[in-house]
Every structure is written in C-alpha cells, then in structure tokens.
Amino acid sequence: MTGAPRKKKYLGAVDLGGSKILSVIAEDDGRRLGEDRRSTSAEEGPELVLERVVGSLEEALAKAGLQQGDLAAVGICSPGPCDIGVGVICSAPNLPGWQDVPICRYVEERMGVPTRLENDATAAAVGEHVYGAGRGCRHVIYMTVSTGIGGGLVIDGRLYRGATGVAAELGHMTIDPHGPVCGCGNRGCLEALASGTAIAARGEELVAQGGSALLAKLAQEQGRLTAETVAQAAGQGDIACQDIIRRAGYYLGIGFASYLNIFNPELIIIGGGLAKVGDLLLAPARAEMEARAMPEALKAVQLKLAELGDHAGVMGMVALLREGATA
Ligand SMILES: [Zn+2]
C-alpha cells in the first residue's frame, strides 16, 4: 500500500518588537514565501498584542497562498528576559505590562502547531550566521548596536548559550569601572558607553552645556534627541557630535579586542540601527581593536556589517526551527 505523498510543511517566524511585529512564512531552505508587518501597539497590553501576533502570522500565510494546516511550526523572537524552555516572556522593557506571558502556549492553541521562543539578539545571531554575513563561518560573534547592545556567539559552528542561557551579553562587559551606570545596574558596561541610549545621553549633555547649536536645533525640530539625531548632526559636520560618535566607536573597539582575545573569532558581524552610521563609528572601533588585540587573534578576524537588516531575527527562527535540537 502506498499512502498519499506527505504534504509539504512550512515554517512560521515572528519578530515581536516594542514597535513592530514582523512575520514571515518560509520554506525550510530559508526561502521566504509570505510576510506581514504591523505595528505592535504595545500600549494596548499583552492580550491585544498576542492577538496581533496571530493576525500577523495568518496574514503572512495568506500572502504565501497557504493555510494554517500547511504550517509545521512557529518560532517567535522577542527582546528581554524570556524562559525559552517553557515559552514564557518574563518581562520586556519595551512591552509595558508583560509579566510572565505564556506566548508559546497561546500561539500553539491558536495556530495548532508547536511554537518556540528565543531572545531576539540570539535569533538575529543565528540568522546572520546561517543566512547572512556569517554564512560558512564557524567562529562568529554577532553584535547588535541599537538602543541597547546585544549579541550572540557561534563557537565551532554552534550557538553558545552558557550554563544558564545568559552567554553573549556582549553589551555588559565592563569597560570602565567608574563609568556611567548601566541599565543592568553595573557601572561602565559597554552598553552604557557605546549604545544608542548612551550616545543620546551624551548628546543631551552636550545640548545642556550649549555645546552644539545644530544638535539643539535638530532635536527641537524632531521633538526628541536620539542617537540618530547625534549621527545626523555629525554627518552635517558638527565636531562635538562627531566626537561623541567616535568616542562610542572607541569603546566598541575596546570590547572587540577583548572578544578577540577570549574567543578568537573569524568574524565579528555588526548589526542594529547604529551600524548604519558607518565609518565614523566603525573606523575608531577597528583602530582600537587593532591597538589592543593579540596579533594572532587580530590576524584571523574580519569585521562585517550585518546583511539581513530587520529580517535577521525571523531568519534565525527559521534556522532554529529547521535545525530542531542542534541549537
Ligand atoms: Zn550593563
């Protein structure tokens, strides 16, 4: 007896962020068939956001010309502490009211397939390793520099999580023991010195001191002062703003040198919104890394920009679902 041929199944992946939800439906080789983007509307609270996650997956399925029954599994990545073993988002700084939300159980019930949760920086690291800038490399450090600094480590071809899953908190390496207080409570973490939040804070100080009329004007026009505002003023020739960005790059380079000496990677991939600032940030980072790292480690490494943009997280979830237990 020959049964009917087994129907092909597809993978669903969702990046749940503080401002937007991105869902894709993909083949297991990573080809994307359908996609949906919508605002998170986090202020509406967990229940409505969960509803939007399911709605987004359904829309991505519809765009791929598929139905719920065609899905094999769903992967979700999200910022903030989560218990990936039980699929619970413990808390999320940019999702107000989220406390121990069992997102996997909810999506499993609604979509009828196994659902897996992962931290978004970890997922992005896997995405870049498997489908992006790190293709074919076995020793990769992925760092995302945006409002915070996060990342992932691929050691000998495998994602490294550490004893309790906290590994690769690349932004929380102490760079200056007397530096500014970090969001984690420690002092002088890389994140407190080189993240978008840190750059914006230095920009605020500069404006308060009357140090940049251009930055003050841009901030007033935009109604806020972010790292992008500082970068914009720097791009328009403001020397003090250029110094702020260069200083952040300098600290990043100190971090890179330590990662090189500890992990001896062949590649450091830099993603996140601030990577777009380009050489003003990355040239001093590279110079400082070169000045500090051991020559043998330096010889092996390349710095590259991430390639997948905001698809890194969802593509990482596709890779993790595909590989099942390997990661
Ligand atoms: Zn910290």
The general outline is globular
Tell me roughly what share of residues is in helical segments. 40-55%
Number of helices: 11
Q: Give the number of DSSP strands.
A: 13
Give the radius of gyration. 21 Å
Mean pLDDT rating: 94
Features:
327 residues; alpha/beta; five-stranded mixed beta sheet; 11 helices; 21% strand; globular; binds zinc ion
Walk me through the structure.
With 327 residues, this protein is α/β, with parallel strands linked by helices. Helices cover 41% and strands 21% of the residues. It contains 11 helices and 13 strands. The chain has helices spanning 46-63, 103-111, 120-131, 190-194, 196-208, 213-222, 227-235, 239-263, 279-292, 295-300, 312-323; strands at residues 10-16, 20-26, 32-39, 71-78, 82-83, 88-91, 99-101, 115-119, 140-145, 149-155, 158-159, 267-271, 302-305. The protein has a 5-stranded mixed β-sheet, with helices on both faces. The longest helix has 25 residues, at 239-263. The two termini are 38 Å apart. Bound molecules: zinc ion.
Concise overview:
The chain is α/β, with parallel strands linked by helices and 327 residues long. The protein has helices at residues 46-63, 103-111, 120-131, 190-194, 196-208, 213-222, 227-235, 239-263, 279-292, 295-300, 312-323, and strands spanning 10-16, 20-26, 32-39, 71-78, 82-83, 88-91, 99-101, 115-119, 140-145, 149-155, 158-159, 267-271, 302-305.
